[in-house]
């Protein structure tokens, strides 16, 4: 039996593939190695795995996760997986590689993530060959949920949001300046907090203000990140992530404006990632 995981900082989506190819899905918490140790991952898995799952029967584990970049981060996660699934061959990789494999399979091309944050790459069908650093939500992440949420919060707090939308924003979240700043500067995971407000732009996507805000975010995504790839217009634009998927019409328009045709846009990679590994088997 094979286990394949798409791991974020908050949630990990797992797919168990049995010996007949049947798929079953479950979730655990996220295992970002910047915030959790090997021992913490082991303890969580032992608590969270379905009671019907026989860990000793797992022969292969493919885990792709957020912030699994450095050798030490890979080791943190891999050691935990090996401890829990002792009989399995374990592979641990970055979530950007998962996106590329889900979107492109074994074909070369361009892949991006547009969710809480953003990332992108050129992929040769096996590995990532070029990556332009998005610089994270402090300095960049244009087009991401955090970038859109930050613009909404800034306009709301400065009184630049249209009055009707500001009233709806206040009614939806019930947050005033001090509570917002406390979340940003004193509480953990401020990027998730900021990105959560991108849903407001989606819920009010017919409002001209929201249309323009999202269009500008995607325009900057292409101007500041995508256009830094040599010959980027020779690739189709393929994307995974809730922000890219929910705002796919605006994203398609932004890509066209920058001379890039759109290929595949999906919300989550897990189904296509499983198909990738089953085809390899």
Structural summary, described in words:
The chain has 281 residues and is of the alpha/beta class. It has 2 domains: 2-87, ATPase, nucleotide binding domain (Nucleotidyltransferase, domain 5, 2-Layer Sandwich); 106-267, ATPase, nucleotide binding domain (Nucleotidyltransferase, domain 5), CATH 3.30.420.40. The protein has 13 helices and 10 strands. Strands 3-2-1-4-5 form a 5-stranded mixed β-sheet, with helices on both faces. It has a 5-stranded mixed β-sheet with strand order 8-7-6-9-10, with helices on both faces. A hairpin with a 3-residue loop joins strand 1 (2-7) and strand 2. The longest helix has 17 residues, at 208-224. The chain is globular and about 60 Å long. 40% of the residues are buried. The model has no long low-confidence stretch (mean pLDDT 92).
Could you outline the blueprint of secondary structure elements for this entry?
Blueprint: E1 2-7, E2 11-17, E3 23-29, H1 38-48, E4 60-65, H2 71-84, E5 89-94, H3 95-104, E6 109-114, E7 118-123, E8 128-130, H4 136-139, H5 145-158, H6 163-173, H7 177-186, H8 190-195, H9 198-203, H10 208-224, E9 237-240, H11 242-246, H12 248-257, E10 262-266, H13 270-280
Parallel strand pairs: 1-4, 4-5, 6-9, 9-10
Antiparallel strand pairs: 1-2, 2-3, 6-7, 7-8
Helix pairs in contact: 1-2, 3-13, 10-12
């Amino acid at each position: 039996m094979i286990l394949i995981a798409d791991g974020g900082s908050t949630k990990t989506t797992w797919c168990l593939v049995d010996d007949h190819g049947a798929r079953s899905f479950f979730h655990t918490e996220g295992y970002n190695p910047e915030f959790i140790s090997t021992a913490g991952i082991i303890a969580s898995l032992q608590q969270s795995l379905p009671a019907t799952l026989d860990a000793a029967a797992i022969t292969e584990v493919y885990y792709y996760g957020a912030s699994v970049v450095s050798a030490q981060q890979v080791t943190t996660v891999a050691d935990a997986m090996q401890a829990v699934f002792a009989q399995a061959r374990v592979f641990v990789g970055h979530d950007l590689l998962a996106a590329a494999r889900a979107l492109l399979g074994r074909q070369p091309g361009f892949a991006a993530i547009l969710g809480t944050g953003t990332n992108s790459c050129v992929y040769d069908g096996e590995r990532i060959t070029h990556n332009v650093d998005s610089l994270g939500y402090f300095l960049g992440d244009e087009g991401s949920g955090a970038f859109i949420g930050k613009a909404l919060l800034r306009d709301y707090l400065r009184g630049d949001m249209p009055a009707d939308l500001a009233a709806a924003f206040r009614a939806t979240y019930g947050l005033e300046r001090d509570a917002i700043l406390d979340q940003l500067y004193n509480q953990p995971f401020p990027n998730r907090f900021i990105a959560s407000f991108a849903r407001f732009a989606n819920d009010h996507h017919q409002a001209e203000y929201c249309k323009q805000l999202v269009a500008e975010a995607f325009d900057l995504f292409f101007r500041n990140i995508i256009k830094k790839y040599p010959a980027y217009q020779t690739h189709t634009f393929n994307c995974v992530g809730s922000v890219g998927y929910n705002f796919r019409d605006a994203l398609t328009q932004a890509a066209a404006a920058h001379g890039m045709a759109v290929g595949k846009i999906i919300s989550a990679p897990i189904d296509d990632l499983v198909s990738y590994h089953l085809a390899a088997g």
